[in-house]
Amino acid sequence: MKIAGQNLGLRASKAVILDRLEARGGPLSLTIQALPLGFEELVNGRLPAPRPPVIFMRKEDGKAARKPDGTPIREEDFRDVNFQKKVTRVAVLSSVAFFYEGLKADKSVSWGTPEPKGDEENWEEFYSAIHSELVAANFTLGEFKKIADEIQVLSGVKEGEIASAREHFLPVKPVHPTAPDSK
Predict the structure, then answer these.
(1) Which of 24-28, 44-48, 61-65, 129-133 shows the lowest per-residue confidence on average (mean pLDDT)?
(2) Distance between CA atoms of 75 and 61, rounded to whole angstroms?
């Protein structure tokens, strides 16, 4: 796409200074870039949201609760511990994906993990390895958050939009371990 004859191929970038203590090497300057339109969808395709397990509802007497047509009543169990762990993992790795993409503008940053070549590759493993590299590089949570916040601002994403996206990422559904007796 061109506007007024100009190619819009370059994304906005800027330097972010991390005020590290002298014991950690002193201030660190990193160049970040805005995230491209559609990047969230790309990440969601690479790190799909986990599906909660399905449970079958029971009546107070322990028998399967059924619909009027006789089919068992099923419900997704959003409180399942393993499901919650998977949700947390996807959220962490999604943050790492945004961080990684935002740091691509900095040519001084190199990673020990090669980026997968296509969507058929295991992106979850890749982002997990990048997370391990960030931990090994002694990034603090505050530094990660500062860079992520700056990428967000540079990308033109407002906090209200993020809060709205969070609300819609995992709709809260009540889970009832037993269904009332039906006659």
Answers:
(1) 24-28
(2) 18
Query: At which residue do the structure tokens 């499901």 appear?
Result: 83
User: Region 3-11: what's the mean pLDDT?
Assistant: 70
How many CB atoms within 10 Å of residue 26? 10
Is 35 exposed, middle or buried (CB count within 10 Å of its CB: 0-12, 13-18, 19+)? buried
| Spatial distance between the Cα atoms of 12 and 3, rounded to a whole number of angstroms | 16
Band of residue 22 on the pLDDT scale cut at 50, 70, 90: low
Angle formed by the axes of helices 123-136 and 81-102, nearest 10°: 70
pTM over 0.70: yes
> Degrees (nearest 5) of the Cα angle 146, 36, 92?
45
Neighbouring residues of 13: CB distance < 8 A, sequence distance ≥ 6: 31, 32, 33, 34, 105, 154
Residue among 32, 24, 6 nearest 152 (CA): 32
